[in-house]
Amino acid sequence: MPGSPTLVAVAHGSRDPRSAATVAALLDRVRNARPGTPAHLAFLDLNAPSVGQVLDSVAATGETDAVVVPLLLGSAFHARVDLPALLAGAAARNPRLRLTQAEVFGADPRLIEVLYERVRAVRERHGWDGPPARLGIALAAVGSSAAAANRRTARLARRFADRTGHPTEVCFATAEPTLGQAAARLRARGADRVLVAPWFLAPGLLTDRLRDQDPLLPHAEVLGPDPALAEIVWDRYDAALARALPLSA
């Protein structure tokens, strides 16, 4: 709607250009859904523009309200510490700009459905139409130094298994269990085929690292700029406005 607060979508950032291209494509979908609301993309690290640069630019236009939506799958250090600190700095520099941080994507049921579609595409491509228990899913995520964050991902794997009927084990690109450990657990549970389902928004160095751990395993596509993700961005934006909890410097 005209006059709505600016949306600033914040991605993690990566040295891999595929990552920035993917989130840029997602922002195109976001903008197309509500062309009357200004929407900008910013990065926490490794890519430009930075969060501070975008917020300073928004303030320079005379805008007084902005909603910051983290394009993050989990509520770990970046969402709980890094981003609030960046917003506090921007608010201090631009006292007339009121900032509201929205929730992360989290384990939204729509994302689980998107991942299921990615898995189903691989299954159909390989002609794997047998009993669900014969195909094991290694749900692969980044991994965190925080055990609580890894436990949340493990719960996500159980939800995914409930949705698909496939035995599912979690693995991490930067922590244990590794992909090899997850695959061994799936085979011990009776799976004679293993497919990797990447819980990643975009391809990058970490998804490549997972592929390198076992090049023979098929990998589903990442979540990518799916229309469901654009829908979730606006849902997080709307929910943040409804809470009306501005961030003070």
TrEMBL record:
CDD domains: CbiX_SirB_N. The keyword Coiled coil does not apply. InterPro entries: CbiX-like, Sirohydro_Cobaltochel/CbiX. Keywords: Lyase, Metal-binding. Pfam families: CbiX. The keyword Lipoprotein does not apply. This is CbiX/SirB N-terminal domain-containing protein. It comes from Nocardia fusca.
